[in-house]
Task: structure prediction
Amino acid sequence: MTPGFPYRLTCPHCGGHKLVASIASGNTFHSTLWSDSKHDYPMLPQPSFIQRCPDCEHYFFYNDGNPVETKDDRFSFDFGELSFEQIDEAYDEIFNCTSDEDNKLQILFLWLFKYNDKYGGRDPNYRSQVCPNSIVERRTGIIGELMTRQADNVLFVAEMYRELGNFERCIELATPLSGGDDFGAEVARMFIEHATVEDTYVFPLY
Ligand SMILES: [Zn+2]
Result:
């Protein structure tokens, strides 16, 4: 992986500037696909599509920050990655203000992925952490929105039921897809296996 010049973003709220790392070249070695559909590419980091302004602490879409390549040679690896608490705040600030359906979907997925990083089992160091009640309720709403928007993706919906602890429904949806040698059937069998032992944590598919 070769670092590239950082990009300068301009906060659309306050006009403040922020430098975000970029890479000149990378690859997909050591990638992981998780059961919640998150892809990790350690050798191909990308800037977070939602950025937080360090000056006014508001959130904005990367592209709305009008990214301009700098010639700043102090290479950084700060891609503006948000914590779970930050995406949760960002959701409040921007979800209802954006009319772009793709952006809405990306916010929902980012929320889910960050939730699973912290509470959903992706990071074993956090497994003892109990998710606050306010978040439990929000998660149900966010997963509901994702299931509606991804209704055609039955395997994804099955996985969401498993993560919510509705193992029966997960198995019911995954079973018809579980015959055969293709990757989808293999994934369906993995979902069934984890649902059978009442496991709600995310796990790597490969
Ligand atoms: Zn700002």
User: Anything to note?
Assistant: Residues 2-69 form one domain. Helices lie at 84-94, 101-118, 133-149, 154-164, 167-174, 183-196. The longest strand covers residues 2-10. The chain is about 40% helix and 15% strand.
